[in-house]
Amino acid sequence: QVIEALQQALESLDIGNHHFVSEHRAALAGRLAELAPGDLQYTIFGVSGGEAVDTAIKIARKATRRRKIISAKGGYHGHTGLAVAAGDAKFSVPFLSDAPEFIQVPFNDLEALEAALDTEVAAVILETIPATLGMPLPAPGYFSSVKALCQRAGALLIIDEVQTGLGRTGKLWGIQHYHTVPDILVTGKGLSGGVYPITATLIRPQLERVFHDDPFSHISTFGGAEIGCCVAMKVLEISSKPTFLQHVTELAQILASGLGQLQSAFSPLFQEVRQNGLMIGLKMTDPRLGPLMTKTCFEAGLLCIFAGNDPSVVQFLPPLIIDNELAGEILQRLQQALSMAAESVAKGGE
User: Fold this and answer.
1) Which of 198, 235, 247, 345 has its CA 20 to 30 A from that of 97?
2) 3-state class (DSSP) for residue 280
3) Do 250 and 312 belong to one domain?
4) pTM above the 0.70 mark?
5) pLDDT (tens digit, 9 = 90+) per residue, 173-229?
6) Do 157 and 25 share a domain, yes or no?
7) What is the number of structural domains in the chain?
């Protein structure tokens, strides 16, 4: 269906022109406003998650007239200018993109966040579930407390839903599980349907005024390309259906049961399942086992990459459109991978 939407769009559309009003951009922005949590009613389009995060930080800085940005240690928000500065030092330092106004605190640590939140902080940016950090799940009440701290300090809350959004957790937006409405929400990856790059930065109405003095102060040549808007509309049509989200929840239950059994069977290697819907991290007992499992999963026919900032965790992210039978096959292949890893460890392999 997504490919068909792209093919149909190519018959009459191109990327469009930002000097003209666009029916397709307006329709997509309107649909995002209908589906977004709370009052996130305005959208700025981009072509990559990093660009969308850059846009979010630019808006937060202009709206608050502050410079500091707080993010989570070990988090990831992209490789572009402001996004890379908000991420891990191993990505920002080599390109001289680290800066003192970008501050990091541990995820789930409210005391550290409160200590860092001063009157110079423009925004706190967090992934709903930080994949590169090893998929730690938010503690109960964490995000609502973060939002309260931001409000008290006059800072904005930016939630990065590039990975957790569009149904992966069984809700359209992962942050909906945690009963928190951010000031800015970033979405991407899946919005493209895997066939045409498009991302979106969603903002509350009062933030839209940052563009009033000069609407061309921020533009993106390919952001919100009309072809991409047609693709994204189809993605939203599919991913927002209650039957689709229920399907994700049912798949998650099947995998949770199977993963629990595998964890018990391979407990010397496999320590913990971190899961919200199909956003899943497999915590191994040793950091060396993540890279080993990446290798053995590949040999068993699965693509499962270890988390860059916690190699003891394997990112386990099944497609949302698989059926129950394929979910069972994935579990069987994971069992093969675990068996090969256990055999390698027994032989003293790395």
Assistant:
1) 198
2) strand
3) yes
4) yes
5) 999 999 999 999 999 999 999 999 999 999 999 999 999 999 889 989 999 999 999
6) yes
7) 2
